[in-house]
Specification:
The protein is an alpha+beta fold and about 190 residues long. About 35% of the residues lie in helices and about 20% in strands. A 5-stranded mixed β-sheet has the order 1-10-9-6-7, with no helix packed on it. A 5-stranded mixed β-sheet has the order 3-2-4-5-8, with no helix packed on it. A hairpin with a 2-residue loop joins strand 9 and strand 10.
Length: about 190
């Protein structure tokens, strides 16, 4: 005879370890972008409310980690993909036209579509008065002048100003350049080179 608290037909109660394991799978799935934030939260609530192991399996079945062979294959593909992306960035960076830093003592270089600018860029994504490049305290500073399509340095948007150096990639709208030291300045810094 069984008591009212025991039922031979009911499965064993889920352990905290089983719930933690399921929650870990959900967290990893969300981190990898396999679950939206809302889906993650909904499934997390369901894991905490689950009464049987098969309920947990249903909530994590599409997220279970791959076998070791699959993990190695996908890891290799991820590494190769990131390598090809890095190569593409390097390849594109080397092909960018040079933008010479102005000579020291010169006025700030204004950049934009308007003919009054020292550097006129006739492209639809460049604002009339887009940016300004000036020497301040011995460093070159690039300032965005409230452009519509933005100014970036090495892929990061310039909100107000950014210090730039020889070799940096700068973009005004969709026009990109590689900064280069003016030849007379390079000769002055490295005589006899």
């Amino acid at each position: 005879m069984t008591s009212s608290f025991e039922s031979p037909a009911s499965p064993a109660r889920l352990s905290d370890v089983e719930r933690d394991r399921a929650l870990a799978v959900l967290r990893e799935g969300a981190a990898q972008g396999k679950l939206s934030h809302d889906t993650f939260l909904r499934r997390m609530d369901l894991v905490l409310a689950a009464r049987r192991a098969d309920e947990l399996k249903l909530l994590t079945a599409d997220l279970e980690t791959e076998n070791p062979w699959s993990r190695r294959v996908f890891g290799t593909v991820r590494r190769m993909s990131s390598f090809s992306q890095r190569m593409r960035r390097v390849w594109q960076a080397e092909r960018l036209p040079k933008l010479l830093l102005p000579e020291i003592g010169a006025y700030p270089l204004r950049i934009g579509r308007d003919p009054v600018n020292g550097l006129r860029l006739s492209h639809d994504t460049v604002s009339r008065l887009h940016a300004e490049l000036a020497l301040q305290g011995g460093q070159w500073v690039l300032r965005d002048l409230g452009s519509t399509n933005g100014t970036t340095v090495n892929g990061r948007r310039v909100i107000t100003t950014a210090v730039v150096r020889d070799g940096d990639t700068v973009s005004f709208g969709q026009m990109s350049f590689r900064l280069a030291t003016h030849p007379s300045e390079a000769a002055r810094r490295h005589p006899g080179a």
